[in-house]
Amino acid sequence: MKTILIKCGGSVIDQLSEGFFSSIKKLQHDGFHIIFVHGGGPDINEMLDLLSVKAEFHNGLRKTTEEALAVVEMVLSGKTNRKLVDLLRKNDLYAVGINGTDDNCLQASMIDEENLGYVGNVEEVNNKLIIRLLEEGYIPVLTPLGITEDGIKLNINADYAASAVAKSLKVEQCLFITDVDGIMIDGEVASLIGKEEVLQYIEEGQITGGMVPKVTSALAAIDSGLNSAMIVSGKKEFYSAEIWNGTKIVANERLYK
Questions:
Q1: What is the pLDDT of residues 136-183, one digit of tens each?
Q2: Was 117 annotated as part of a binding site?
Q3: End residue of a domain, out of 171, 193, 212
Q4: CA angle 223, 134, 168 (to 5 degrees)
Q5: Is 41 annotated for ligand binding?
């Protein structure tokens, strides 16, 4: 089963265009199955502030307290996930929202309970539910929440969740959605670039700002065992007639120059 995983951050969902959804339809027409993993940072932060949930930080990372976790799940499953599922439906794409704790899909363990609270790493992916939905022609839309052996729910970084699911499903490609056309080097989009070059351009300051975490996530996906990952725009078509638009990052050391 040829599968494409799409990681979509919460800040990008509202910017997804008709061209973006058209690309998904074309991928399906070409025989690919699609799965989304989404984040929801802006929605979560807005609700935490609205409910006056006190923010605790450790080394710059927000600690997920039990109170905060309840808000995280409420927002991710009840708002962000539904928003993305509804957008897909409105574009005639059949999607099903699932929580990472459903059927113990994202089996996780705590990273550092004392300092980070209910934050986890994915230890194993139980992909039976995902595969069944894919086989039935649905687009699973996965909320990045995990669950421990003891039934404790954990907040999972969406990029790490995407990498774990991509590896489990042996996907053909992992796409990270952004609001620009790809990685810009010397004013031009780099269509193909090696991992070592990416690290070099980050160090040199050619890759900056919000692109850095996207690229870092793509590199993490490659490190998890994928041959490549892509940075594509959610504001336009990224696929048509077997042609990809965006930046493909591969494990090879140097390709761009």
A1: 999 999 999 999 999 999 999 898 899 899 999 999 999 999 888 999
A2: no
A3: 171
A4: 25
A5: yes
